[in-house]
Amino acid sequence: MTISATTSDTDSPAALPAKSKPVFGILGAISSAHMINDMMQSLILAMYPILKGEFSLSFSQVGLITLTYQLTASLLQPLVGVFTDRRPQPYSLPFGMTSTLIGLILLAFAPSFGFVLLAAAFVGIGSSIFHPESSRIARLASGGQHGFAQSVFQVGGNMGTAIGPLLAAVVIVPFGQHSVAWFGLAAILGIGLLLQVSRWYAAHHIASVGSRKPVNVAPYSRKVVTGAIAILLILIFSKYFYVAGISSFYTFYLMERFGLTVQNAQLHLFFFLFASAIGTVLGGPVGDRIGRKPVIWVSILGVAPFALMLPYANLFWTTALTIVIGLVLSSAFSAILVYAQELMPGKVGMVSGLFFGFAFGMGGLGAAVLGIFADRTSIAFVYQTIAYLPLLGVVAALLPREIRRT
C-alpha cells in the first residue's frame, strides 16, 4: 500500500521551482526572527539561578518551569501545523511573537512562582505558533535546498539560545529580574521582521493558489513511513532528554562541582550553546550532499563516547567535551526534520509541528524528571545517568534508505 498525497501550495513544485535559488532575504529574516524568539526563551533558562534564589525554588520547581514552557509548546505545535496545512495563516507569526513578548513582561514583574509559570506558558504559546509556520516558510524559500534552508532557520534559534546566558550575565544578574523587560524591545523588532515575512508569504500564497495541483508521491508504504517516524521520534527523545540535562542544569553542575560563580557558569553554558549553533549550520547542507541518514546516525550515536566521559572530566575537559557534544549533537535536528518532511510530502506544517512539539515536550519532560532526580540524588549523578541516552542513536540503522529529492 502506498501513500498518495495532495501537496499544499507551500510544498508543491508549482509553488516554488525546486531548482530556483533560495530566497536569501526571507531566509535571513526568518532566521533573525528565530534568533530573537529563542533568545527570549533562553532568558528563562539563564535566569534559573536568579529565580531559584528569589523564590527559594527546589530543582523540581526549576524543572517545572521548563516543563510548563515546553509542554505548552509541544501540545499546541502539531495542532497549529495541521490547521495551517489546510488553511495557511501568514500573519500568525507576528501574533506568536506578541505572545512571547507578553510572557517576557510577565517574567520581568512576576511576584510569585505561579506568575513565573504563567509567563513560561505564554512563551510556550508563542513558540507553538512561530515554529511550524516558520519552518514551512523556510522550506518554501529554500529553492530546493531544504537541508540548507532548515539549517539557516535553525541556526538563528540556536544563536539566540546561546546569546541568552551572556545577556543574563551582563544585564539580568547585575540589574535583577525587572531588567528582563528591556528585552521586550527585541520582541518588537521581531514583530516588525515577521510582518515583512508574512507579507511575502501572503503574496506568494495568493500568486500560487491558481497553480496548485495534486501530486501523487509514494516514497514508501504506510507501514514503512509509520515505522520510520517512530524511529525518528526515539532519536528526538534521546537528543532532547539529554540536552535538557545540559541546558537546564549545566550552570548548577559547574557551580556545585567546580565552584564557579553564576556568571562564569553562564559563560560555559554559552560555549556549549554556541557550539550547538555551529553544528546546526553544518548539519543541513551536509545532509543535502551526502543524505540525511548518515548525518542522523553520526550526530546521535557519535556523541555517546563524549557523553560517557563528561561526568568524570575536570573543568577544562568538561568544557571541551560539552563543546564537542553541542557541535555534533545539534547537527541532527535539521536532517531529522527534512527526512520526516520527505517521508510525508504535502504535510510540512503537520510534520514540523509534530517534531518541534515532540522536541519541546521531551525537553520539558526531561527537565522535570531530571529536576526531581537531582533533588533526590545529585546533579553529578544525573549527568552520569543521562550519559547513556545517546546510545539510542543505534536505532538510526533501522531507517529506510532515503529517496533523494531535488
Looking at this protein, list some descriptive labels.
Growth Hormone, Chain: A; 15 helices; mainly alpha; membrane
Describe this structure in words.
- This protein is 75% helix and 0% strand.
- It has 406 residues and is mainly alpha-helical.
- The protein has a single domain (24-398), classed as MFS general substrate transporter like domains (Growth Hormone, Chain: A).
- Helix 8 (222-258) runs antiparallel to helix 9.
- The two termini are 25 Å apart.
Please state the structural category.
mainly alpha
CATH superfamily: MFS general substrate transporter like domains
The amount of helix comes to over 70%
Q: Count the E strands.
A: 0
Annotated CATH topology: Growth Hormone, Chain: A
Order of helices and strands: HHHHHHHHHHHHHHH
Supply the CATH class: Mainly Alpha
Principal-axis shape = globular
For the largest beta-sheet, the strand count, sense and barrel status come to:
none
**Weakly predicted, low-confidence segments:** 1-18, 209-214
Radius of gyration: 20 Å
Distance between the termini: 25 Å
Number of helices: 15
Mean pLDDT: 82
CATH architecture descriptor name: Up-down Bundle
Estimate the strand proportion. under 5%
Give a short overview.
The chain has 15 helices and no strands.
